[in-house]
Amino acid sequence: MPGRWDDIIKRLLRHDPQQLVSWLLEDAVFKSELSVEIKRRDIYADALYEILLNEQPVLLEVEIQSTNKKLIPERLLEYNIQASRANEHLPVLTCIIYLFDDGKTPAPPYVKTLPNGYEVLRFNYIRIELWKLSTEEILQRGLVGLYPLLPFTAGGKNLDIIDTMIEEIAPTGDKDLLTLAYTLAGLVFHDPEDQKKIKRSFAMLGDHILEKSWAYQEIKQEGREEGIKQGLESLRNVLIGAVQAHYPAQVALATRKAQEINNTEILQTAILQLLTARHEDEVQHILLSMEPTTE
Predict the structure, then answer these.
(1) What is the DSSP letter of 155?
(2) How far apart are CA 128 and CA 44, in angstroms?
(3) What share of the chain is helix, strand, coil (3-state, %, to 5)?
(4) Residue 102 burial (CB count, 10 A)
(5) 3 state SS of 40
(6) Angle between helical axes of 2-15 and 175-188 (0-180°, round to 10)
(7) What φ, ψ does residue 154 adopt, rounded to 5°?
(8) What is the DSSP track for 27-43?
């Protein structure tokens, strides 16, 4: 499940990078999205952007966390340094977004000292705990591209907020954003009656609006069996997601191999094998065994 949360949130943050940038750095301007892979390093970011701040290029790295991890500051620091080194030593601002309350999260800055108290390292980063933000903090900014995050905020698990979210997004005509909002709302609200009401609210927009979006086509599977019934692109996404959830070091290989395959049967077989794999070497073998072909 954590992999599913993370994947959908990543899609949302990449949907309109400028709105994310404006949320984190009000006067900054999005320039381009960069590769999250650091060569010769088994570390990845969820998103890495080149932005302009005071007309000067800097990097913005964003991490999504659905669970709390004790050593996350060290991982953030390592990626920060490597991303800078791989991109002409530009300064990197790191931001971590926690989706749920999973205990006390490490607060910035990350500081290391010697036993005598001498400080040898200080690393600053932005920490956002969505469950502590009020819905108004996002609504007042008018960043509609971030409104699908409203259900995660304090007081956001409210059907009135869902109606507000729909009312604000619908006039934009952004089908993909509506689909992402629908999917995230469906994952946050667990009560069957609430889910029915949410479906009815979105149904008023017309099913064809959601079904025509790329996000609907990639996300609509409710589980593995339903996902396997989807088309070629959805199967590729399922395969990559299965690897990302448990073997992130193999994501680059999985992405490359998935794009090479145009045969749904090969993808289906590989997905089933990956779901029962026990070791990283086995995962790598499965991926390397996928041979390009056409249907």
Answers:
(1) T
(2) 19
(3) 55, 15, 30
(4) 14
(5) coil
(6) 150
(7) -65, 125
(8) T-EEEEE---BPTT---
Token reading at 282: 């086995």
Residue 182: name the closest of 213, 155, 154, 153 by CA: 213
The model's pTM: 0.69
Per-residue pLDDT of 159-193, as tens digits, reads 999 999 999 998 888 888 887 888 788 778 878 78
pLDDT at 58: 97
> Residue 227 pLDDT > 50, yes or no?
no
C-alpha–C-alpha distance, residues 226 and 223, integer Å: 6
Q: What is the pLDDT of residues 74-97, one digit of tens each?
A: 999 999 999 999 999 999 999 999
User: Worst-scoring range by mean pLDDT, 3-17, 176-190, 225-239, 245-259?
Assistant: 225-239
Q: Which of 49, 46, 45, 57 is nearest to 21 (CA)?
A: 49
Whether the bond between 109 and the residue before it is cis, its omega within 30 degrees of 0, is yes
Dist CA 78 CA 92 (whole Å): 11
DSSP state of 88: T
Q: What one-letter code names the amino acid at 202? A: F
Quote the tokens at residue 117. 């108290």
Cα 19 to Cα 188: distance, rounded to the nearest angstrom = 22
Helix (H) or strand (E) holding 115: none
Q: Domain map of the chain by residue range?
A: 2-132, 147-219, 224-288
Are 180 and 217 contacting, i.e. CB atoms less than 8 angstroms apart? no
Residue 295 has pLDDT above 70, yes or no: no
